[in-house]
Amino acid sequence: MGRLRNFVYIITNKNKTVLYTGVTSNLAKRIQEHVDEKHKGFSQKYQCKYLIYYEAFEHISHAIAREKQIKKWRREKKEDLINTLNPEWRFLNDEIPEILKNSKKNPERKNTVNKQNTILAQKSNTMTRHILRIPIRSISESPFQGRFFSDKNLKHVSIKKKLDELKKSIENSGLLQPIIVRPKDEGYELIDGHRRLEAHKQLGRQKISAIVQESSEEEAQVQSVVANLQRSNLSNLEKAIAFEKILKAGLFENRKALSVSIGKDETYIGDILNLLKMDNRIIEDLSQGEGSQDVRLLRMIRNAEKTDKNGRSDIQYRLYLRLKNENLSRTQLKTAIEYLKGPKEKKDLAIEAKKDGFNIKLNRKLTKEQQAKLQELMEQKMQESLKEVFGEFEVGD
Known about the structure:
Layout (H helix, E strand, L loop, with lengths): L5 E7 L6 E6 L2 H9 L6 H4 L4 E8 L2 H12 L3 H11 L10 H6 L7 H16 L6 E5 L3 E2 L10 H4 L2 H17 L5 E6 L2 E6 L1 H9 L4 E6 L4 H13 L6 H13 L6 H8 L3 H8 L6 H8 L7 H10 L9 H13 L3 H12 L7 E6 L2 E6 L5 H23 L7
Parallel strand pairs: 5-7, 6-8
Antiparallel strand pairs: 1-2, 1-3, 4-8, 6-7, 9-10
Helix pairs in contact: 8-9, 10-11, 12-13, 15-16, 15-17, 16-17
């Protein structure tokens, strides 16, 4: 049996919004490479350099297989894995020497992981004062959260069903993952866990388990948005509302800065935000969890016609209803848009300004006689126009 020298590790960025999974036979050297930005690619682009999770293996082949397995997981499952070892997501870079020292001889990976769990659990015990049972009445909602939790929305069938399922799970198994809050004024501000908090309120609970962490305004809002982005039950409209609130608050300079911070493409941010420019009736329907969540199809509908000053567009709404009720494909939707907008008016004459003149295009077939006549008339009109623009004394000089 050899020493456990091979590691699968997960690192994150400062705001804990992006995760990177890797494998190495030299953990200390590899993490230092990430810190020094010598490891090119994804981790360097998103500034992932903080160790938050690891597993040790005797054989490199086992470590590689485990890395491939974890990389296939969704963000939510990776978060659950990290929470089993490091529920507070502490940065472990300074503890690498101790991690290496405690890598025991054990050929069975299952026992190895269990031992690593024990090591990190012991380290986390020194921080348990930050995992508290706090009064629900002391928690205020984040002003940047996008979820629809008004009395009207909570009565909607789909939203009510999901909350009922969560309440049943809490009653049977307890709260599996604490909410995350930060100290604010005399109480706490919610960062992550809006549905869990709402479920506790509906169950009549007075307290809830929470991870209390010190966070700046920007860090708290980024963490809140990213946590929700990784959950399939957050609608695109809810994401749009959260993005808009954050940008209006000036927490980020522009969309690009926000996109980099949460690890998403700027185009994605734009498409999500533009949902708020759609017909008010469409927005209302989307807020109830209805209709298509495909931002590409919704973009086609939005571009078909702008809304008026009252936020309405009959063409948008008619197209949306067809998309929703008939489950149109992209091609079918394109055809429907062309039909509703009617054929484009084709102009007989198109004039395009160039740096050193004009291009004139005539969308009609002419005989030679017609061409000659038209050329003569155009030259006459052009001379008259030049005199009007520049003055008669300049023309022909």
